[in-house]
């Protein structure tokens, strides 16, 4: 009888005209509510089906008094059904999801009806859908084979829940995103779903693809806020949130960061710093050692979290336009604690560890950003302040930090993807097999090298002299030299690079720095590999011949000076490097002679490269990088060609500053007084006086104009007279043709 009654109601509902439907709906919803309250599953399902039919009817007139609170609660309850029979349980859950979908459809577009986006409703609807999605994944892993399922069984609660969630999020407006996402985050927290991260990633994939693209950054902001709120949670949970962030950023692409670009990176870098602190102190409360009441922090988990943050920084930056990537790199570089910067270096052993880890993590982040950075104009991409800070980090004693700086420089300079072609240092016989992409050096690149070239060469030279360099350092130095030669080199730069490499050979040859045998052999091998490649790029036959002669001499007499031997798996080194024959070295005189004959700057080639430094001892001890930078600036200014033209700087003291301020105030006062007098004169003086004053000025202007006209008219007569065509009269002013720009 119930079924028949509901059938009748449904038919009435479908036949009812829009104007009179409101009178009938209240009774209908009461009946549906009664069915949903019944304990019999089939009656609950019957009630839901009727409600869904009603939800699909579009009404013209809104209803102010209709409430759907009961339906939201009851359908959410049905979504969590725990009936003993799996089939019945599935049917009840599916009915619950369909019911929620009906409520959403009925209310979402009608602002006068109950607001479905209120937290009280969202906190029931969203977790119910996620609950079914989650249990669907578990069931999926247990099911024997999806191929055995019949067509009817194919529609299951998880699929339906996903469809409903997508529909809900697709309808969310700007102001409602927050209320829709918050329950998702709470659900993932409550059910510990961040750790395996598969479900969390799946959820946010659905969210990011369902919402309108212009709202993407709101989801990212919610996730960042949640990461901050969980900053004292276990590293695995934080890593899960960060992984989800990374995925979401890739999906949202350019819409992922929104208006507050640096805020996103600031949050991620703050989490990085916190993680370093946790790993060092062993406690989530800074300054408190791992003791009673504090959870044990596993260093390897924190390291995994740090790697996840760095990867996410890369994901975000790759979605940005070039100019914003550049801003982000400057922002990260300014956070790196350097002795010369305002970030104070913490004293003591703990401080050293913290600084070192922070430097490494931030440089890793910078490397991640620079890998996806493509810019044709190096001058705008690398501002002077950024380059100074980056290169100052290259002079630090820690070999790992130096290596990161070299890698970052390489990723900036390599704009044609040539880097991978130099993965091993070797004296290759024919470089055409490398298939290098070489473009002509642009004007901006030439300006960049004019401005920063000497600074770059000096740092390459100083890094190559470090005792604790490893094979990776020499590999990176080789790549950097080659890439500068390919990407940024005009004739002048090539000449300077050859001089630089010969100076590095000199360091290994004379050994004033007391380098170990491996370092000396590595530097000599590095020089051979570079000169071999540059000689083939320049294609000057006599130059190539000299280089090949030296390489062949080394193959016979000193194979340990060639990269194939030094950088092989088992390098054989010689301790008697001081007794080598002259033919195994490249000679500056010979190179300058052969290149000078081909039009290169002979005078510049024959001058040995000496870095612009005066106090190398102070530099090598490296008490502070601040000293290094100030020293470089001082030396550069001393050696600059404009030095003679500069006037001696005025000595600035407290007195001169005070005087300047007082003078400027006095000048302002006088100006103000003059203005006041002019205004007063025009306000109070009699008309005749003002007219006389203006008339005098007009007369003066007229006399000046007459003079100008005289000058412009007179030459025309003189020129023609000079050619024998005497003129009896000059052209009147009103007949002269003036250019448009001269006519007022």
UniProtKB/TrEMBL annotation:
Signal peptide: none annotated. The keyword Membrane applies. It is found in: Cell membrane; Cytoplasm, Cytosol. One of its GO terms (cellular component) is cytosol. SUPFAM superfamilies: ARM repeat (SSF48371). Belongs to the EFR3 family. This is Protein EFR3 homolog B. The gene is Efr3b. GO terms for biological process: protein localization to plasma membrane. Component of a complex required to localize phosphatidylinositol 4-kinase (PI4K) to the plasma membrane. The complex acts as a regulator of phosphatidylinositol 4-phosphate (PtdIns(4)P) synthesis. In the complex, EFR3B probably acts as the membrane-anchoring component. Also involved in responsiveness to G-protein-coupled receptors; it is however unclear whether this role is direct or indirect. Component of a phosphatidylinositol 4-kinase (PI4K) complex, composed of PI4KA, EFR3 (EFR3A or EFR3B), TTC7 (TTC7A or TTC7B) and HYCC (HYCC1 or HYCC2). Residues 137-158 are annotated as: Disordered. The keyword DNA repair does not apply. Keywords: Cell membrane, Cytoplasm, Lipoprotein, Membrane, Palmitate, Phosphoprotein. It is a lipid-anchor.
């Amino acid at each position: 009888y119930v079924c028949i009654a509901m059938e009748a109601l449904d038919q009435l509902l479908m036949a009812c005209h829009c104007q009179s439907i409101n009178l009938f709906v209240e009774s209908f919803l009461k009946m549906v509510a009664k069915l949903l309250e019944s304990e019999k599953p089939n009656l609950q399902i019957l009630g839901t089906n009727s409600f869904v039919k009603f939800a699909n009817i579009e009404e013209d007139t809104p209803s102010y008094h209709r409430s759907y609170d009961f339906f939201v609660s009851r359908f959410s309850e049905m979504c969590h059904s725990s009936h003993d029979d799996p089939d019945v349980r599935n049917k009840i859950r599916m009915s619950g999801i369909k019911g929620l979908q009906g409520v959403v459809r009925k209310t979402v577009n009608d602002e006068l009806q109950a607001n479905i986006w209120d937290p009280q409703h969202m906190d029931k609807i969203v977790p119910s859908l996620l609950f079914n999605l989650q249990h669907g994944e578990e069931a999926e892993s247990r099911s024997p084979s999806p191929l055995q399922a019949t067509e009817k069984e194919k529609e299951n609660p998880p699929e339906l829940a996903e469809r409903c969630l997508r529909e809900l999020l697709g309808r969310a407006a700007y102001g409602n995103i927050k209320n829709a996402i918050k329950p998702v985050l709470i659900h993932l927290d409550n059910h510990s779903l961040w750790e395996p991260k598969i479900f969390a990633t799946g959820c946010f994939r659905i969210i990011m693809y369902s919402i309108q693209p212009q709202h993407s950054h709101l989801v990212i902001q919610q996730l960042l806020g949640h990461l901050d709120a969980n900053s004292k949670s276990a590293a695995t949970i934080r890593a899960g949130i960060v992984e989800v962030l990374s995925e979401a950023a890739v999906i949202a692409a350019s819409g992922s960061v929104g208006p507050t670009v640096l805020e996103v990176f600031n949050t991620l870098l703050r989490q990085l710093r916190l993680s370093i602190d946790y790993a060092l102190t062993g406690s989530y409360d800074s300054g408190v050692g791992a003791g009673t009441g504090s959870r044990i922090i596993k260093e390897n988990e924190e390291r995994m979290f740090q790697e996840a943050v760095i990867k996410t920084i890369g994901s975000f930056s790759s979605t940005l336009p070039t100019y914003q990537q550049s801003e982000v790199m400057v922002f990260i570089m300014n956070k790196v604690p350097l002795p010369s910067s305002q970030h104070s270096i913490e004293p003591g052993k703990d401080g050293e560890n913290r600084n070192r880890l922070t430097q490494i993590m931030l440089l890793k982040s910078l490397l991640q950003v620079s890998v996806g950075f493509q810019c044709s104009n190096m001058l705008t991409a690398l501002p002077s302040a950024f380059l100074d800070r980056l290169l100052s980090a290259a002079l630090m004693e820690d070999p790992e930090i130096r290596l990161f700086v070299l890698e970052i420089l390489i990723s900036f300079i390599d704009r044609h993807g040539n880097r991978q072609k130099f993965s091993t240092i070797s004296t290759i016989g024919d470089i055409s097999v490398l298939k290098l992409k070489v473009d002509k050096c642009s004007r901006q690149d030439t300006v960049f090298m004019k401005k920063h070239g000497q600074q770059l060469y000096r740092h390459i030279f100083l890094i190559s002299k470090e005792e604790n360099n490893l094979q990776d350092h020499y590999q990176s130095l080789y790549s950097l030299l080659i890439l500068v030669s390919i990407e940024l080199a005009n004739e002048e730069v090539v000449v300077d690079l050859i001089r630089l490499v010969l100076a590095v050979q000199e360091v290994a040859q004379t050994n004033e720095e007391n380098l170990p045998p491996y370092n000396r052999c590595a530097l000599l091998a590095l020089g051979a590999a570079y000169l071999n490649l540059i000689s083939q790029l320049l294609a000057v036959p006599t130059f190539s011949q000299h280089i090949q002669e030296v390489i062949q001499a080394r193959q016979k007499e000193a194979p340990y000076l060639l990269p194939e031997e030094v950088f092989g798996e088992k390098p054989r080194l010689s301790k008697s490097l001081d007794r080598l024959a002259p033919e195994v070295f490249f000679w500056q005189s010979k190179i300058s002679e052969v290149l000078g004959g081909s039009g290169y700057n002979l005078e510049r080639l024959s001058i040995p490269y000496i870095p612009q430094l005066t106090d190398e001892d102070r530099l090598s001890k490296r008490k502070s990088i601040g000293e290094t930078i100030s020293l470089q600036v001082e030396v550069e200014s001393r050696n600059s060609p404009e030095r003679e033209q500069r006037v001696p700087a005025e000595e600035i003291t407290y007195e001169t500053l005070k005087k300047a301020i007082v003078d400027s105030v006095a000048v302002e006062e006088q100006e103000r007084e003059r203005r006041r007098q002019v205004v007063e004169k025009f306000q109070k003086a009699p008309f005749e006086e003002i007219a006389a004053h203006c008339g005098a000025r007009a007369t003066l202007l007229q006399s000046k104009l007459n003079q100008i006209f005289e000058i412009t008219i007179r030459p025309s007569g003189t020129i023609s007279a000079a050619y024998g065509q005497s003129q009896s009269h000059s052209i009147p002013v009103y007949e002269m043709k003036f250019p448009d720009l001269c006519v007022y």
